[in-house]
């Protein structure tokens, strides 16, 4: 059995995230981007990654300066933007940044660029027992509404969801939830700066993963011996 904590949209609020690891002891940590906020210094990124008590895989978000890729390479975390990594029966692939927004944030892709990136990532992803995509931007049609029937997700990402079992995304802070797209599970735990995270449990004896959305304000479960 494998337990994963998935967090996204930290926006520099590292102290809030530390509380998650007073509650959880995962095998892996996934970070779905916006580690920092617009214009924020990157100085705190390496100490933050060093303090996470599990192997950590991260993609940048649209609010991260593109220089964060160099910083992440120098940290204890493993940046997986445009990469795919096998961990036994688990394969993790990553797409950082976002499709275009009205705000001209630092790490955005044109539709053509994102199409090329998604094709590249899909080609690198082999079929494993569990295949997870960590993407900052949600696929179009899943957890991407900014107003009723107004979707801002990425079309190129939607085209490759069938290559994965779980799509871990963020970006749209108000779209905390779990849904299905093309019979694949999409999860946005909500912004980590508010103490939100998802606990994903993979059991090879089970057909479906167990995904629970949590917050650091939730009562701590006590296991009776």
Automatic annotation (TrEMBL):
GO-annotated molecular function: hydrolase activity
SUPFAM superfamilies according to UniProt: Metallo-dependent phosphatases
InterPro entries per UniProt: Calcineurin-like_PHP (IPR004843), Metallo-depent_PP-like (IPR029052)
Coiled coil: none
Domain Calcineurin-like phosphoesterase, first and last residues per copy: 4-174
Pfam entry (one): Metallophos
Protein name: Metallophosphoesterase
Lineage: Archaea, Methanobacteriati, Methanobacteriota, Stenosarchaea group, Methanomicrobia
